[in-house]
Structure formats: structure tokens, C-alpha cells
# Entry
Amino acid sequence: MVSFPSSGAMDAAAGGRGPGTTVLPLLIGGDAQQILTHLTQLLTHVQTITGLIGKVSGAQTALRQAWPVGAASDGAAQKLKTVVDLFQQMTTLVSTLQGQTQAAAAVVTMTQQSYAAMVGATNPTVAALLSQPHGHPAARALSLSTTGSLASAVQAGRTQLDVIGLTRIAAVTAQLIQIADQLRTLLRQTD
# Structure
């Protein structure tokens, strides 16, 4: 989690409309590390699925050796092949999800680091300008322009996260749900 510097001078110069009151609340709670931790947990499940793919493929081979001919054998082998194919599709989709999740974490980190760098660099200058009566207008202008830039950067980050989340991750999730439904249907037929 990024440590956010004080924006007290900028907030004061901007009359309460500085980055600490308008932009920082949008960044608090965004935790790229938590996103990556979730991704690590997801990848652990993928490793389990990959192991299952190997076992089901082995079962398919053993079935063909033990029961080489007949319509029932062909049907069972086809179901096993379908299960393997669906699991492989799942792992491919989770790999896509991995990339999108890493991109989301990178956007969160980049946006937070940009805020910290801009405020860390600007706040001391605004404080110095505020210490001189004739520097107040310049302090206000610098604070407001920096806050506007920060707000634009955060909005761009939010837009990127919306694209990643609403479009890409949602599409992958929908495909995973379809695969799960196909597996459920296939396994019900086996009961």
C-alpha cells in the first residue's frame, strides 16, 4: 500500500478543494497487493485444475486400454475428452484473467504513486508560497491546477479499471460460468 504524503498546505490554499479532500478519498482503499493476493489464490486453483486435467487424461487413456471397443466405450471416452477440453478452456481463460488482474493492480499502483509523487513535490512549494502574503494567489493557483491534474489522472485510472473490470474481466467470468454450466450438464448426464 502506498503511503500518501500530507496535502495540508494544498488543501488550505485551495479553500478545502485540494487533493486531500477531493482526490485522496478516491484512492484510499485501493490495494494492489490485495488484488495480487487474490490472483495468487486463483492461480493455486488453476494448478489444481491442471492436475485434474492430467488425471482425467490418464483416465481416458486407461479407459481406452481397458474397454477398447463399443458404443458405450466411445461415449465414455468422448465425455472424458469433453471434460478435458473444458478444463483446458478454463485454464486458458484464467490465464487471460491473470493478465487483466495484473493490469488492474498496475493501474491502482500507478495512480496512487502518481498522487503521492505530485502531492509530495507540490505541497512543500505551496506551503512556502503560503508563508509569504504576496504568494497566496500563486499558492492557490498551483494547488488548484495540481488538484485538477490529479483528478484527471485518477479519472483516467478509473476509466481504465472500468474497461478492465466491466469489459474484459466480466467477459472472461461469463465464459467461465458457461464452461461450469457445460461441466454440470455433462456430469449430470453421467449420473
The domain at 29-190 is CATH 1.20.1260 (Ferritin). Helices lie at 8-13, 19-22, 24-27, 32-66, 71-130, 136-190. The chain has one domain: 29-190. The chain has a mean pLDDT of 88.
